[in-house]
Predict the structure of Adenylosuccinate lyase.
Amino acid sequence: MEARSIFRNISPIDHRYSISEQELFDALTPWISEEAAVASCIKAEVALMVAHLSMRGQLTPELRETLEKAGASVDPAEVYAEEEKTRHNIRALVNVLKTKVPADTAPLVHLGATSVDILDTALSYRMKGVTYEVVLPLLRKLELLLCDFAEKEAETPQVGRTHGQHAVPVTVGFALAEYVSRLGKSILEIERLASGLKGKLAGAVGAYNATTMIVRDPEELERIYLAGLGLEPSEHSTQLVEPEYLLRLLLEFNVAFGIIANLADDLRNLQRTEIGELREGFGADQVGSSTMPQKRNPWNSEHVKSLWKAFMPRTMTFFMDQISEHQRDLSNSASQRFTADYVAGFCLAVSRMKGVVEGLGVDRERLLYNLRGGTGTEASGRGSGIAGGVMAEPAYILLAETGVSDAHEVIRRITLAAEKDGISFAEALAKEPEVLERIGGKMAELGLTASSGEALAFFREPERYSGLAAKKAKALAAKYRNLMAGSCARPSAE
């Protein structure tokens, strides 16, 4: 077939990303390219021949090797040329393969199978392969990087945020441990679902009509056929494998995709000039803007979010491919081919996020500045804009513990006074000696301070109020690092 310049390809996956992500592109090609689609169908046809010969007691190691070599010699261009005549992709593939195998085995090519016995089985084989060989290793690398980062920054103070407003203190490691936990669970689920992908050799309507004419035990023939491809039979087939096996795997891909997009959003927002707590790596020759030389944009995080926007809506097609009339119609024939694009887009986003986390920097001074409300006296914000305002919660809790029923309102009035007078929360609290004394006494009683007189120092240093953030970050990093070490081994095809 005629070769063409890579820049004449239509999909950006096949020009822009195949160049910038060459290693990933090369890893995906054996599984989700058109060449891989043809090769996997050939592999399924050879596996069917091997199963027939095995059932007949005629299979030898030499004959298996001959058949496998014959299958490997098929050029996709030959199949496409033959399809111009047959107008049927699998019949074209069968016709070509028959010319490659020994003449006495040619009658076994496609014997007892319908097209989808080959197509759905080959698709399951490829999706299982790409998941174990590309998707899971890529996700695992990202997860381990997140584990390392969460552990490293487990005790680095950071202000927590809800609704985009300062809440109470956490740590950087704790904030990233959210994604360690969410992505880790999704990785394990992807692995489970990939291991459960099914194939079939049940014929035109799934009732084994054709194979009952060939062998006494059609289900045994099916098991042997599928075992050669590392698969098991679908519990019930029409002409199609039950679509939910693949659907659930693709939906879990999308769950992981959403988690990564959420992480990308958090990271890029924390790089805003007015926040400036984190920063992406930036090369010495890298340019942030064509007109503003000072710009260092969080473009990789933005790129991940953009890929999610492009590919997430395709899950609607996955749901629509779930429906086929009676035993089968062809309404999924074209749409299902674009599953490859989705897998590629997902992997590109994971790869890009891996690079972001690898180069992620932390500005500890800025983190502490923001946590302590360094802009509080200049800010016109309300409540959380007060320097040290994040410490209103422990003040309220401690005061309530002393028996003050309207403690929340008491502390709220102190925050309003701090805002009105342009002072820090600790300074406003110091102006309420009776409240401070009660709080200090409770702190001493709980062993939080050596004496009640030390209470004010606690409210000046919000980094001391971070609950179990550091402990949780370390525990989750350790848990998922261990889980990743025990996962992602591809089941044997035997």
Observations:
- The longest strand covers residues 165-171.
- The longest helix spans residues 115-152.
- Residues 288 and 472 are 36 Å apart (CA to CA).
- The domain at 138-209+228-363+468-494 is CATH 1.20.200.10 (Fumarase C; Chain A, domain 2).
